[in-house]
Amino acid sequence: MVHQVNTNRILKGKVPTEESGIEIRKTICSICNPLSHCGIDAYVKDGVVIKVEGTKENPHNEGTLCSKGAASRQYIYHKDRLRSPLLRKGPKGSGQFDPISWEKALDLIAERLQKIRKESGPESVVFYVGYPKWQRPYVKRLAHSFGSPNYCSESSTCFQATQIASRLNYGYFGPPELSKTKCLLVWSGNPFYSNTTMARKLLDARERGMKIIEVGPLITPLTSHADIHLRLRPGTDGALALGLAHVMIENNLYDREFVEKWTLGFEEYQAYVQEFSPHVAESITGVPSELIVKAATLYATTKPAGLLTSASPTVHHTNGVQNHRALTALIGLTGNFDKEGGNYVIPPNYLYIANGLIFREAEFAQSRPYSEMAPRIGEDVYPVWCRLVSEAQAMHIPNQIRTQKPYPIRALVGFGLNYRMWPGSDYMKESLGMIDFLVNIDLFMTDSAKMADIVLPACSSFERSELKTYPEGFVIWTQPVISPLWDSRSDVDIITDLAVRLTPEDPLLPKGYEVCVNWIMEPSNLTVEELKKYPAGRMVENIRRPPYQKYEKAGFPTPSGKMEFTSTILKEVGLDPLPYYQEPKLSPRSTPEVAKKFPLILTTGSRLPHFIHSRTFRLSWTKALTPHPFVEINPQDAGVRGIASGDWVKISTPRSSIKVKAEVTEKVPPGVVNIYHAYPEIEVNQLIDPDYLDPISGFPGFKSLLCEVEKTRGLG
Ligand SMILES: Nc1nc2c(c(=O)[nH]1)N[C@H]1C(S)=C(S)[C@@H](COP(=O)(O)OP(=O)(O)OC[C@H]3O[C@@H](n4cnc5c(=O)[nH]c(N)nc54)[C@H](O)[C@@H]3O)O[C@H]1N2
Ligand SMILES: Nc1nc2c(c(=O)[nH]1)N[C@H]1C(S)=C(S)[C@@H](COP(=O)(O)OP(=O)(O)OC[C@H]3O[C@@H](n4cnc5c(=O)[nH]c(N)nc54)[C@H](O)[C@@H]3O)O[C@H]1N2
Ligand SMILES: [Mo]
């Protein structure tokens, strides 16, 4: 009997066959962060994505997808996607625009920027990238080829302050080697929400018997897997780390040989940590002294041990860099730096990912040395930042727009610029209104895009190509699985088209993405043409990973060539060279008079699994998981204020207030309230002063300030 194919059934089941006309095409998700970017199988029929799944052969996500990736179709086909280039017709911020052609938009932008460059110098034009990362090397090169030192990004609030701290201590840094670590000190971070691909690897290591110590004020999904949880008061990491060091030194649990041979300033450090007995550390941090002793002993005596840090919770404080220095000092103190199963240094090859491949991203992006350009924004205020980070400090943009010192800022070209991520978001918004020319490139008509003179529609990762490398040594060059929707375009094509108009003498950028990528990958003998043969991506065989303990041969890349307990660079700029502990600028201990009226500690921006910053509120699947903005408050604090879960409450700081729903939960400790940062309905960042910043890095103190919460009537 001839088997009859039931096309209806295979269509309904979305089965990829010739009869159904459904084809599986490979791409990656870029809704989320570069640590994830999961491989995606897009089921495409008649040029439309009708279903997505995780790519099984991608070793990073191994077929899995999170709630955000699973909602990809709602993201790419959203009705609010920008559909064509737009030229402002109403007043700034009115959101009134006329559609224009790409040719006209790009010509207009080039014309305005050339004029401003001629009148005020190239440095008066800022090139900024928000949380999206994939186009960054190309934007940076465009800025520098144009002559502006002012390439900057959202990294002015993320990750770079941890890098500054680690570079001050060691000159470079590496994550724990999870597969070999026997004890993992997870100092902040919630990978179950923020980095799901890593959470699975962490659980594998736990099954193997790895010990876990978690440090953070909140109860997270990791807490139930941890042997010890140090539930410190937000922003007191320095005091806790010095307390742990105290126990290690007092009980002779530190690595004497490493310390003697490879460190600078140990005696001063040792004298300083004397002040942080477990009892003193308890009185500052709220962590019981027995737990401090227990954790110090476990971490220092289980070899090899790894320290896992995150990109932001330890440095979203006005004392962040010094706190982070104090905690990463524990790696050297216990002799776990650059050791097998300890914190192993592999320099990143491309877009923050390290896998041993050698790429020329930094050389590509820095097409002109800083010495040939004007000082960067923030250089006068944050000299350490400018010495250790090759970007301008974007938190200083609103101030320089207003003071025009040391020179005026007249134009800003933003890729995913979101003024709402700045502390004092209204202050940043107002500042943007003061410049002559603003371009924003985004997928959606955001509040920030509304402020622009010209808005350009970017496309999603499904509609373009992208080079992506993974820590596993896996590399993919994606090809569009559908054509760009409406009149949207790839960011990099926009950049290279601007380069044709603005920097025609640049030998690479005007030639297009593939030429640039081939140049960047050349030292590893990879080419785009070769990668195209592997649509799902390929493992690169025989990557040579660097040896352990590189310092034995080359010393540390610090001024002294050693790990620095006392930082030479901080000393040079007149700051305390020790990992000195200072209270957050606003805290019950540093400002008791403010705390009388605002007795609760406010921490903002701990991640939710289904939201990523401002990006997935539009998607009905993810939005439905938590339909209202909410603040988490401990039953003790809620009880005395007569607050129950679901009540409307007002959160006030000395600067402003917002109304949200209350969620009464033990997840936050008594005295602390926690709210997600990027809700569209409320301006969380208006609660925070624009100058509430760490003096070394310029990072905002998003995660330790003071507030009060009271019951109120609903909105409206
Ligand atoms: N209170 C508080 N504030 C915070 C934080 C906090 O914890 N608390 N966290 C800080 C941190 S760590 C970060 S990283 C920032 C987040 O920084 P933001 O830059 O605010 O992050 P997003 O909202 O993800 O992205 C900004 C814009 O990029 C657009 N976009 C997405 N993909 C693309 C693309 O491929 N091309 C282009 N052109 N645009 C794209 C999005 O639509 C969005 O409008 O927020 C910071 N602000
Ligand atoms: N789903 C989702 N994933 C994301 C993002 C997102 O928006 N959504 N954003 C991405 C970005 S840009 C970033 S920076 C990362 C952030 O990623 P994570 O750092 O993993 O996430 P957070 O939720 O900010 O912080 C996690 C934990 O930090 C602890 N913490 C808070 N304050 C302190 C403190 O003062 N000291 C210590 N020791 N711990 C503290 C809390 O206990 C909290 O549970 O997530 C990335 N991944
Ligand atoms: Mo971040």
Q: Please list the strands of the largest sheet in the order they lie side by side.
A: 5-4-15-14-13-6-7
Please give the alpha-carbon distance between the first and last residues. Answer: 69 Å
Number of helices: 27
CATH-derived architecture of the largest domain: 3-Layer(aba) Sandwich
Major sheet summary line: 7 strands, mixed
Strand fraction equals 15-25%
Structural class comes to: alpha/beta
From the spread of the alpha carbons, the general shape counts as: globular
Look at the structure and give the CATH class of the largest domain: Alpha Beta
Question: How many separate domains make up the residues?
Answer: 4
For the secondary structure, the number of strands is 25
Oligomeric state as shown = single chain
Q: What's the Cα radius of gyration?
A: 26 Å
CATH topology of the largest domain: Rossmann fold
Average residue-wise pLDDT: 96
* Low-pLDDT runs: none
Bound compounds: ligand MGD, molybdenum atom
Helix content: 25-40%
What can you see in these coordinates?
By secondary structure, this protein is an alpha/beta fold. It folds into 4 domains: 75 residues, 2-Layer Sandwich (Phosphorylase Kinase, domain 1), CATH 3.30.200.210; 264 residues, 3-Layer(aba) Sandwich (Rossmann fold); 171 residues, Dimethylsulfoxide Reductase, domain 2, CATH 3.40.228.10; 120 residues, Barwin-like endoglucanases (Beta Barrel). The chain is built from 27 helices and 25 strands. Strands 5-4-15-14-13-6-7 form a 7-stranded mixed β-sheet. Strands 20-24-21-23-22-25 form a 6-stranded mixed β-barrel. The protein is globular and about 70 Å long. Molybdenum atom (MO) binds next to loops.
